[in-house]
C-alpha cells in the first residue's frame, strides 16, 4: 500500500470513528507522524478526501473535517425531494428483471444490518443504501439529473445521516425500501414515487430534529 493510500485510509477511518469531529482542524505534522508518512503523500491524501467530501480546505486556516449546517441539510434534502422521487418514477418502467432482483437484494442487505449496532453495521447499511438508490437512479434514463444528485449527496453525509437515526427510524427506512421494491415489481411508478418522497422527507425530518437538538444542547 502506498504512503498516500495509508494516509487516506487512516484519516478516513479516524473521521468515521469520530476521532476527529465535524469542523475539527486536521494538523498535518501530527497526522504525518501518526501514519509514518511524509507531508507530500499526506497532502495528496487530503486532496482526495476533500474531493470526496470528507474534508474541507479553509483558506489561511488549513484542512478541517467537513460539517453541515442546518441550512446545508435543508438545501440538500430539498433538491433530493424534487429530483429523486421523479427519477424513481421514471426508473420503474425501465428496470429489467436483473435490476429488480438487485433492488430486492440491496433491501435485504440493508435489513440484515438494521438492528445491529457498531461501525461495521453502519458501513454495511450505507453500502446497501447507496446501491439501492443508485440502481434506481441509473435506470431513470436521466444522466444529467443523476450527476446532480451524485455530486450533492456525498458519502460522508449519508454515513452521518445514518448515525443520527434511531432504531425505529432505521426500520422505517427499511420498510420504505421494501415498499419501493413492491411498487417497482408492480410497475407502478406513481406508487414508487410517493414512497420515495416519504422516504426522503422522513430522513430529512429525522436529521433536522437531531441536529437541532445538538445545537440546542451545545448552547446550554
From TrEMBL:
GO MF, any single term: DNA-binding transcription factor activity
Domain of life where this protein originates: Bacteria
The UniProt record lists the keyword DNA damage: no
Keywords, alphabetical: DNA-binding, Transcription, Transcription regulation
Ranges of residues in domain HTH gntR-type: 1-68
Record-linked SUPFAM superfamilies: GntR ligand-binding domain-like, Winged helix' DNA-binding domain
Protein name in the entry: GntR family transcriptional regulator
Originating species: Advenella incenata
